[in-house]
Hints:
Chain A: Heterotrimer of an alpha, a beta and a gamma subunit. Chain A: It catalyses: oxaloacetate + 2 Na(+)(in) + H(+) = pyruvate + 2 Na(+)(out) + CO2. Chain A: Belongs to the GcdB/MmdB/OadB family. Chain A: It is an enzyme of class 7 (translocase). Chain A: This is Oxaloacetate decarboxylase beta chain. The complex is a heterodimer of chains A (377) and B (87). With 377 residues, chain A is mostly helical. Chain A has one domain (16-59, 79-376). Helices cover 73% and strands 0% of the residues of chain A. Chain A contains 21 helices and no strands. Chain B folds into two domains: 1-45; 54-87. Chain B contains two helices and no strands. Chain B is rod-shaped. The chains are: A mainly alpha (377), B mainly alpha (87). At the A-B interface, helix 8, helix 9, helix 10, helix 15 and helix 21 of A face helix 1 and helix 2 of B.
Amino acid sequence: MEGLATLWASTGIANFHWQQLIMIAVGFGLLYLAISKKFEPLLLLPIGFGAVLTNIPVAGFSDPGGVLYYVYKIGIDTGVFPLLIFMGVGAMTDFGALIANPKMLLLGAAAQAGIFATLFGAILLNVIPGFDFTLADASAIAIIGGADGPTAIFLASRLAPDLLGAIAVAAYSYMALVPIIQPPIMKALTNKEERKIVMEQLRPVSQREKIIFPLMVLTIGLLLLPEATPLVGMFCLGNLMRECGVVDRLSKTAQNELINIVTIFLGLAVGSKLSAEAFLTVETLGILALGAVAFGIGTACGVLMAKLMSKLSGGKINPLIGAAGVSAVPMAARVVNKVGLESNPHNFLLMHAMGPNVAGVLGSAVAAGILLALVGG
Amino acid sequence: MENNLSSVLLEAANLLFIGMSVVFVFLGILIFLIKLMSHLFAGEIPAPNKVNVPNRPSVKSTGANQDKKVVAAISAAVHQYRQDNKQ
Lengths: 377, 87
């Protein structure tokens, strides 16, 4: 009889707190979004599963000694996983569209305004009781506006590890929601004529330019903003491997096997941060709201900048492509293409939007470096 | 608390200003350097094009040449045939 009582005491049912049940439900919710709605499934699936695992009572996945504890410790606490992902993203990115039309970098820069504007919002939320964001917390939240998962995770792991779970979930959810969040903003800020603008075809870019480009970015990074070089450097390494043409095997590994392996563990580690005590707070709601605002402001600033450039260039630039300045590669560029096609069914903006899109990746890495340098130090 | 909030807000404003300027300066320098690079390697730019573009016309032109030869041969043969038949 005593044996039965001991066994009962060790079951999940006897040990559940209601918060853990809610978090397991959140985990299943993420799994549902990943599988049925195909919202960034590569990440939300392991994140959701990690959230379920970490909230299992008694098993202690995220306590010292548990497997998720080590995965988090090794991969995210050290910042290694997001950087490896960034290398893979670099190996997958073709900068040709940007090199052919370098002015697009301005759009990638303008869209980062969402990040810095959200800093205000996060600090202002402190007025409401229950919120207590430091400047470091606010910076980590604001980077959601950069619409770049690995950058957000990297910065959050440096500046606000306690908020990492909520920040990562917000970042990836909003990236999945790009096709819903962006079009209304894009349409509100442009008129039909502007959306119809057809852009000149881009010139072809030589291999030599593509090889020099990552080296050039790295050089400026190390001279001006060394804090950004972990992100920018790994990105450039991946891109150089892709473009130089002599290490195709490494490039393929970085953009396939390696990034896949790291994605599994990154997702699990982020999921392990979705524990009841860290996630079930008002601050999480604040983070989700601020993330959406950051995203909206970033999109709006990108479009407005593109409008300005369109005016200055005498109507050669379609202002829609500004929306791709928030990174979210390649989803944002596809959205631009789709909205453009709605106004003019023969106007394919995809290649033109890839320029600001990859510029946005660089822009948010630079913004992350600035926040690290000014807030983290 | 109020004081503290306003000082943090001021700091955030500062960050906004510095952050956006640095982002623009950084990417602005990059624009300049890309243009410089494109200029330096301007002669090299059409390289992938040169491989493709002359190839296609050359295929076409040899095709056209062949066509001309065939046409010439046929018309010569027709001419010969007609000449032969007349006589």
